[in-house]
Fold this sequence. Notes:
The protein is mainly alpha-helical and 589 residues long. It has helices at residues 2-11, 37-47, 50-87, 98-106, 109-127, 130-139, 144-156, 159-175, 180-198, 200-214, 222-239, 248-254, 261-293, 295-310, 314-332, 334-363, 368-390, 417-432, 437-453, 464-480, 484-492, 496-507, 512-519, 527-539, 551-558, 568-588.
Amino acid sequence: MVLAFATVAMAAGGSSGTAPAFPPSLDSYGDGHMDSIPGILANRIRQEPFNLIATLIFIGAIVHTFLTGRFMVIAHRWHHDHAERIKKGMAPRESVHHGAELFHFLGEVEAVFGIWAAALVGALVLYFDWPTAKSYVIHGVNFTEAMFVVVIMTLAATRPILRLSERLMWKVAGLLGGSLTAWWWAILTIGPLLGAFITEPAAMTIAAMLLGEKIYALSPSKKFKYATLGLLFVNVSVGGTLTSYAAPPVLMVSGPWNWNTVFMFSHFGWKAIIGVLLANLIYFLLFRSELKALQAPFAMERLKDEIQQRYLKRQDVEAQFDACASEFENRYKIVEQFSSQLDDARQALNQRLEREALVDLKQKGIDPETARTAFRERNQEIQLRRMRRDLPGLLPPEERPPFIDPDWDHRDDPIPVWVTVVHLAFMGWTILNAHDPAFFIPGILFFLGFAQVSAPYQNRINLKPALLVGFFLGGLVIHGGLQGWWIEPVLSNLSKVPLMLGATILTAFNDNAAITFLSTLVPDFSDAMKYSVVAGAVAGGGLTVIANAPNPAGLSILKPYFDDEVSPGGIFLAAAIPTVVMWLLFLFL
């Protein structure tokens, strides 16, 4: 970060000439006659040494993702130590440990590639100049996918869409018996396959939020949580292959290779359905005892929800509480008594402050009566602020702060049909204009206005997870645009099976959409080779957080259930079995 800021400062007086063509086109290296991959890579480094620098920075970002858990451990320890210092009076009450805050930021998986993208831009400025770095970021990188994910994730996380999806899952789970196991099957099957129609990022958001509410909230074992997360990532990655427009890696090739929805379903989609069911069955057999053990707390939560929906309406309980509180207040006059005591304390404090400071203020030429008025008003303001924070119920109703209901998102109020229809219309508009930010970004702005108008039927709209995911993807595409120099020769010099395996391995270290995009640049790719690279890319889309664009969205939603410390190694191991299942099905069917 220091390097980035320093180089931007240097750029203020840098060259103003025309930025060179960067990165060089793959054809410009003139190595089409070479057969050796090491020879091709060495030649490209020799012609453009910055290729190696960009890849080393990219490797640094990947290594950083594996260290995020360690950063979080250190941040939590420092935060705990500082909290103890506050309790002992050794640190101010409102203070923070800046080292803990820094390490917590470094431990956010969604921030990693953005941090290293800043270092990459700084390196570009140092090696070339500011116009080159600026030209690359503005003209050489496509941020449309990152912006689309932010918008569709925000829409998919809204209460009407979630409740509609939940009803769909409930129908499927009901057909399977309505148990916790049935919900687990429904979410991990219907959710990912739904991504073929509403896009993978939307399906990931919906499935992850339902898993959190129905499964993770019951505090299962860490092994089961990782297994379900890895299974979700892989299922979503292959679930989008039923159509030609929903999965990012498919979108990259559907146009150049003329792959329509009929082609996708006949070559990939039906295999993906079998793979999802088979992978779910394997994990069900591995964790059926834990699912059975979680059935009792799940049944209790379902019973409480049913009682609340049918017999114990929230508004009825609150009306009874208001009546009791009013009767208590009328009988004991507690608010008046507390206010009287607070006034006495305020007057005593005013008198002490006047005695200590009035002489000094007189010497400064301030009128004594004006000083007394200022003391009284500021004293009252400070006490009111503290009362609003700690004892709001003892304030008169007109002075109480607005109440923020912590359970607002779990209320049982019905949602009018017209609200749900409008939400579906906004999602449809976004999906139809997925490649046109000039349309879907104004769409989300109109939606935020509609959400304000229909606030009684909405959840609180939290933009932070979606923006973090967008930040992650934005940083990833900045790095990915400079990795083609080595990915393209690797892909073009492999036969069918090694190519499929290579695409899967490369996907674990780069977005699978980047892998498939680079494959469209390889000349004379046979139909079998095209199939292999896409099959390998989508099969490996769950191995890491960076392997598939929707993965950061799911991680952002489910990370709190892991105490904000999700191990990349844990995700890899959890996704290994379903990845192998999908890979073998795509290879042999």
